[in-house]
Amino acid sequence: MAKDYIQTDITSVQQPVEQANGLANAHYIDPATFAEESEAVLKSTWAGLAVGADVPNLGDAKPIQFLGMPLLLIRDKDGELRVFENICRHRGMQLLQEAKTIEGAIRCPYHSWCYSTKGKLVSTPHVGGAGLNTHPSIVKDDLGLNEVCSYVWRDVVFINISGDAPEFTEVHADLIARWSEFDGPLYHGGADSRFELELAANYKLAVENYCESYHLPWVHPGLNSYSRLEDHYNIVEYGKFSGQGTRVYRQFKAEDGSTAFPDFPDLSEKWDEGAEYISVYPNVLLGVQRDHAFTIVLEPKAHNKTVEHIHLYYASDDTLAKNRAVNTRQWKEIFEEDIFVVEGMQSGRHAPTFDGGRFSPVMDEPTHCYHDWVAGRIARHRG
Predict the structure, then answer these.
(1) Which of 64, 105, 112, 117 suits a disulfide with 76, CB 3.0-4.6 Å?
(2) Would you place residue 2 in the very low, low, confident or very high pLDDT band (cuts 50, 70, 90)?
(3) Does the predicted TM-score (pTM) go above 0.85?
(4) CA distances to 26, 259, 293 from 193, in Å
């Protein structure tokens, strides 16, 4: 049967960085190619869905759309984070329309079938007729909510839709080891430490931009004034992750010049003035510094629309709101500076003769690493 997406040539993407081209335009502007790529990249690997701070309390539940799929993020009554399909097993009705705290059971608003926060079907009123709440053909143990494979690392809820990816800890063993010094508790700053940015662009462009520091002098002149291009280094692990780091991180200070936030405990000297910013493929961007960290979960709304969900974390839950608010504002200003280039690249992908572009072998290798990984996933999917 003929395929309705554009069969792009990915061989040039998988060349060494000195010879490679970037992914073809269709991977950014063609809905059918985006659908093929979503199967190969977003559904078959460990994609970021949300953060645990979205459901901080026992019983908290939040409906989330991911690539058109209705999902439900919930913290069950034992505190474990779970992801289910947000549908009743009876007639496929969406269970929750908005975030709420489940006091008793998750109740379907259609026929009132009820589920525990662990997904077990617990009640089927009138299923055998009026006043009869059981029927031999309805086996409750077989009709629990469909659970999606999930794993939580650094408070990010990663999901594997296909259910057949290797274990998260196996896939990301090298990155987990690299940042093992930050394994202690993370405290979300709360309402003043989260914000969203909407991009009229493909999610991959946000990843590509985040990976490299090449653009700092022109896009982030304020940041570049003290964390210069020459103070940065590339992080490249082909087939795994990429990003960049700085050797001159300037610790956030309060208005009076004092240290605003406590450091994460037991850090090595590397982190005295060092910081790293890594893309966890396919759609999560993480940053670590000695006194705070951040997470960006990229929500791919469409081939040309992305929402960035940004969250800031600290080593202690005892931080001043006014300091957190200033820190959040500063990061928001930095991330907003990237919007015009990401959207500009999206618009540029409509140029019919653009061949995916070339990479600076010195400055762009983290971005090439990501293109190569995406192309590899697509090649395996195509067989």
Answers:
(1) 117
(2) very low
(3) yes
(4) 36, 18, 11
